[in-house]
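Posted in: Structural Biology > Protein-Ligand Complexes

Title: Requesting predicted complex, adenosine-5'-diphosphate in pocket

I'd be grateful if someone could produce the 3D structure tokens for the following input. Sequence and ligand are given below.
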Amino acid sequence: MARTGFYPGSFDPVTYGHLDIIARSARMVDKLVIGVGVHVGKQALLSAAERISLIETVTKPISEHSGLKISVVSFDDLAVAAAKRAHAQVIIRGLRDATDFDYEVQMAQMNGSLSPDIETVFMAASPATRMIASSLVKQIAKMGGDTSLFLPHEAETALRAAMARR
Ligand code: ADP
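-- Reply #1 --
Done. Output follows.
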């Protein structure tokens, strides 16, 4: 049976850290649905449409290289509900540090209570991309720093354009 994973997040913007998780998920699932969370009260710099289009562009080489089928959707409700709509058997999350761990385990357990049929799988961040966080990258960009180590070129361009609009 083809296995489908659901990878939810803010992706504001998508970073090399996210891409590392996406590329490695090809070893676990045949299809990955990436869920861009659009939640009231969580103000994003990039619109949902921009984040989706960016993810579609920068994940193309991963699909071509690994054969992983990737699609991108937005969701404004529970991750487990969005995972169900995507017909996913697993929710995939990345773990960078102990802060991620505490929050993510609690969330996985609550999601597990809500939907026992969907398993959350954690992937430890790779050493080379572990330090990357979208929020910090945005701060670096605001202060004129170089973000090319953290973001694909298309994401840097979109980030700069979004900041110029503000
Ligand atoms: P959220 O608001 O859901 O935390 P993010 O876009 O910040 O959204 O992260 C989405 C997922 O990607 C989370 O599971 C997060 O832990 C993971 N992630 C973010 N950055 C990295 C990274 N550098 N390495 C590995 N996983 C990461």
